[in-house]
Design brief:
With 516 residues, the protein is of the alpha/beta class. It is built from 14 helices and 23 strands.
Length: 516
């Protein structure tokens, strides 16, 4: 029988008492490991993190906690090769795609270590300047932020088992809040292994980082008013979390990242063959194929003027035709597999639903696989669909297919294009392509109301922009409406979620004694 991965809870490694769920290689179909949390005393796990690790972290200054993050970075760098092997086997990703997850997570940790060091040897943060409460400055109000006195529960998605942990844990630990992570079952191995390496290295206080690698049952029940929960996943599960008594009645702070129909918009003056046109084509192909399109920030809708619809379809399809798909262990493969057969079925069903209102411009569903058995491997080639009548193709603006699938959408004019972008009902990111700085700036302001991030690509940044789908720790990650209404990263703004803001009203002498 395959190995069952241990959970780290209440400061010790514990194995579930049930048979566990089997994690498989999505390309070869072989069993890898099992995960299970049956029989764990969750109340004990949360209490230990809250009562033991929390005070230990809060006793440190921001600079001291930043040093902890730096130590975690060194541990993870030591084991990078093992993480790549796990990602290949459990997620079916090629090396470049694994780097987005693994090295992206390590980079984010390092960035917060540097930012945290600059905060200095303090234990609370000044929030703005003191304001007088009367005519004379003898009684003032000073806002400050102090670390939340609870636990941060992370319920993560399957697509980023490494980055998804560390982009949340970095600001949480820097804030002085202990972390309990529940990775998605399908790809939990990498998360569990990273936590194990950090715990075994002894670089964090006991209980500061815990992992529950089995079922999520009962986790939300343990949350108390000063705890926080951060969720990445489907809108359906997000609804369950929002309605749970911990959130609905105990007012546990919740951050949600859910479905997102991200778009790429080519300005109407961009002609076929122009630099802006070519940049759009390149970015669309990259976003459709990196991690087999299993990215919450991937481009799902491509908005182009009706005059260039045909040319865009031809150019994108031509590049997609050269994408090799199959076993990520083969160096000739550019795109690996989806994470599971279940995900493959969901993608195929989604394509069928979208096809009722679209035309197929490039169909990679039956392309030959490299070093992979199509009867076993959860592989599918990229599929480009098209909607000439964007207003009637309602499903295109409502259904996200979480795989290498995107729809080319035709618009009449700029007002129509902006309206279509916003029909996603709130997205994580949109990207704009063109050469007219003024028009791009105006469009950016218009779409900002419904998007958490606006990525503007002009010919002068062709070699330096960070990518439509790449989430950089300096910028906000999250979006309104359908995207969940949450916000992560954005530099030190990420610390807000793990702090309590309070206004201290006192004399100048008392405020000075705060030591902020």
């Amino acid at each position: 029988m395959t190995e069952i991965l241990a959970n780290f809870a209440a400061g010790r490694w514990q194995t579930g008492t049930g048979p566990g769920a089997v994690l498989t290689d999505p390309v070869l179909g072989t069993e890898l490991v099992r995960v299970d949390s049956t029989g764990l005393d969750l109340a004990e796990a949360f209490a230990f993190a809250r009562d033991q690790a929390g005070p230990a972290l809060r006793a440190m200054t921001y600079r001291e906690r930043a040093a902890l993050l730096g130590a975690v970075v060194k541990v993870l760098q030591t084991h990078r090769d093992a993480y790549y092997d796990i990602a290949t086997a459990n997620a079916g990703t090629v090396k470049n795609d694994s780097a987005v997850d693994i090295d992206g997570g390590i980079f984010t940790l390092g960035q917060y270590a540097r930012w945290g060091d600059a905060l200095g040897d303090v234990r609370a943060l000044r929030d703005g300047d003191a304001t007088k409460l009367g005519k004379e400055p003898v009684f003032l109000s000073q806002h400050l932020q102090v670390p939340a006195r609870g636990v941060a529960l992370f319920i993560n998605a399957f697509n980023f088992p490494a980055w998804g942990l560390w982009e949340k844990a970095a600001p949480a630990l820097l804030s002085g809040v202990p972390v309990i992570v529940k990775p998605a079952t399908a790809t939990a191995w990498l998360t569990q292994r990273m936590v194990k390496d950090v715990v075994d290295a002894g670089v964090l206080p006991a209980g500061a980082l815990s992992v529950i690698a089995g079922s999520s049952a009962g986790l939300m029940d343990q949350l108390q008013p000063f705890d926080v929960v951060s969720f990445t996943g489907s809108a359906e599960t997000a609804g369950v979390i929002r309605s749970h008594p911990a959130v609905a009645h105990r007012s546990v702070r919740a951050n949600i990242e859910a479905d997102s129909l991200n778009s790429a918009l080519l300005l109407p003056d961009a002609t076929p063959g122009s630099d802006a046109f070519n940049l759009l084509v390149r970015e669309v192909v990259r976003e459709m194929t990196v991690k087999s399109g299993q990215k919450c920030t991937a481009i799902r809708r491509i908005l182009v003027h009706s005059a260039v619809y045909g040319a865009a379809a031809e150019a994108i399809a031509a590049k997609l035709a050269s994408v090799t798909v199959g076993n990520p262990r083969n160096e000739g493969v550019r795109m690996g597999s989806l994470v599971s057969q279940a995900q493959l079925r969901a993608v195929r069903e989604g394509i069928t639903s979208l096809s009722t209102h679209t035309e197929v411009l490039h169909d990679g569903r039956n392309q030959p696989l490299v070093d992979a058995d199509p009867r076993v491997a959860a592989c599918i080639g990229p599929v480009l669909l098209g909607a000439r009548d964007a207003d009637q193709a309602h499903v295109v603006h409502e259904l996200e297919v979480f795989g290498p699938v995107a729809t080319l959408v035709s618009y009449r004019d700029m007002d129509h294009a902006l309206a279509l972008a916003q029909r996603g009902q709130g997205s994580l990111v949109t990207s704009l392509y063109g050469a007219d700085d003024v028009a791009l700036a105006q469009a950016a302001v218009q779409v900002a109301a419904s998007h958490g991030r606006v990525h503007v690509i002009t010919p002068d940044v062709a070699q330096t922009h960070t990518g439509h789908g790449n989430v950089m720790p300096m910028s906000q990650h999250g979006g309104p409406g359908r995207a969940g209404g949450g916000a992560e990263l954005g530099g030190l703004r990420a610390l807000d979620f793990y702090h309590q803001r309070s206004a201290v009203q006192a004399s100048p002498a008392v405020l000075a004694a705060l030591g902020l």
